[in-house]
Amino acid sequence: MSARFRRYSPYFQAPKKRRFTMSQDPSNKPSSSSVSRYPHAKAPLRRQIHAPSRPNLIYAKAKKPNSDCCDNGKLFTREYDHAKRTALDACRFLNRDKETINLEEEEAVSQDSVIEVIDCDDDDDEEEEEEKDIQTPYSSSSNVNNFGGVGDTSTMLDSLSLGREEETTAEDASSLQAYKKLMQSAERRNSKLEALLFEVLFHEKRLSQLRNPRPKHVKKPLKKVPHEPFIPLTEEEEAEVYRAFSGRNRRKVLVTHESSNIDITGEVLQCLTPSAWLNDEVINLYLELLKERETREPKNYLKCHFFNTFFYKKLLSDSGYNYKAVRRWTTQRKLGYALIDCDMIFVPIHRGVHWTLAVINNRDRKFLYLDSLNGVDSKILNALAKYLGDEAKEKSGKDIDVSSWEMEFLKGIPQQKNGYDCGMFMLKYIDFFSRGLGLCFSQEHMPYFRRRTAKEILKLRAD
Predict the structure, then answer these.
(1) What is the 8-class DSSP label of residue 114?
(2) Is 371 part of the annotated catalytic residue set?
(3) Which segments constitute the Ubiquitin-like protease family profile domain (predicted)?
(4) Same-domain pairing of 234 and 316
């Protein structure tokens, strides 16, 4: 920047000119040759003091000593104060009692723990050797050595304080390291103890089980599937059923049951083909065949009575319960036995498009209701209970208290998986109960039962 620009710049300020004064000696008068540039300022008039005032202190400049003795004294004093202060600070933070850890005892706690033993004596020896080797910067000065080795004293105190601090730091570090190793060994020991505790408890439990006498294994009796209800058809019987199902025999009367006066044509027998609904003629004829089977072999079957499909319609008509409508159905002359002497009484129930079964179990004093769709209808069982009381009083002159009998809607029985096998399920409920067997069949057996029922109707003999 040029001198002209700096001169006219608003940020430039010209330096002030120095004023020079001539030093005057108060003892000597000014010479005529040296004249002050500015006139001497006159001393102001002193005010009158009306109260006590502090006198003005005049500080005079200390004269500079001529010798080096003062410098050495100040150095001695400063070094002495510093050494004293350092020594006091070192003594303040010095721990007299050292904490020791007996590592030999910890080695006996766990074999896995590895602890290094720190020898503190070696460190102290090294620190002492280092203190001996320390030299102060003042040791080379001849002036300091002349005053009794003050530098050596301060150096000794400084090294003493530093040595103490290094010693405590080393001890803290060693104790922290040992503590960490002990913590690690304790953690490993705790995990092993937990594993051992689990093994101990496991073996104790196993030992207690071995000491106890072993319970005898009781084999559950296997449900024996009877052979009679599942006798396969022969080839001749299969061919006969196939011919009966053919369309050429639709109008032909295949069989006639004389005692019940039921005729079975090919068209009526078609209800036993797959996916067809059973009709009243086939159901009623089959029930007649079951009754004949019992009469033929009374020892192999329960004493049962089989009502036809029209009984319940007569007993419970649109006008309600009507015992008189069915009073003559069970006379001694027609049946040859009293109804209350039977073990079981089967009543087919037709509910529009669905077949169900009601059972009067005289042997167990129960009223049962079986539905292949798990249906429930207490009205049916109540009507049958009333009928049984009226029948016993009418035919045998006995009063039966049916109020104590159980009414049970059976669950867990074989169920149909379609919309057309309800009639076949009802017939097989009757067949198996009359044999005194459990209901050990399912939906998979329905095609076989249809062909077997057709074969038995064609032969007019239930097996």
Answers:
(1) -
(2) yes
(3) 262-433
(4) yes
**Minimal CA–CA distance to 285: which of 265, 308, 318?**
308
**Which among 147, 175, 210 is the end of a domain?**
210
State the Cα–Cα distance between residues 340 and 359, nearest whole angstrom.
13
Buried b (16+ CB within 10 A) or exposed e, 381-400: bebbbebbbbbbeebeeeeb
**Active-site choice (354, 390, 440, 445):** 354
Q: Are residues 117 and 90 in the same domain?
A: yes
Rg (CA), the chain: 64
Say yes or no: 205 and 235 in one domain: no
CATH of the domain at 363: 3.40.395.10
Catalytic residue among 158, 371, 421, 431: 371
State pLDDT tens for residues 32-84. 444 455 555 555 555 555 555 555 544 444 455 555 555 556 667 777 788 88
Tally of domains within the chain: 2
Residue 415 vs residues 356, 408, 411, 418: alpha-carbon distances, Å: 12, 17, 10, 9
48-57, 124-133, 215-224, 242-251: the lowest-pLDDT one: 124-133
Q: Last residue of some domain: 179, 210, 241?
A: 210
Q: Is the pLDDT of residue 22 over 70?
A: no
Round to whole Å and give the CA distance between 456 and 462.
5
Q: Which domain holds residue 102?
A: 71-210
- Asked whether 425 and 414 are in contact (CB, 8 A), the reply is yes
Place of tokens 């540039």: 37
Whole-angstrom distance, CA of residue 371 vs CA of residue 358:
9
Q: Is the overall model pTM greater than 0.70, yes or no?
A: no
Is there a single domain that holds both residue 256 and residue 405? Answer: yes
Rounded to 5 degrees, φ, ψ at 161 are: -65, -40
Q: Could you tell me if 199 and 235 lie in one domain?
A: no
Q: Which of 271, 304, 342, 422 is catalytic?
A: 422
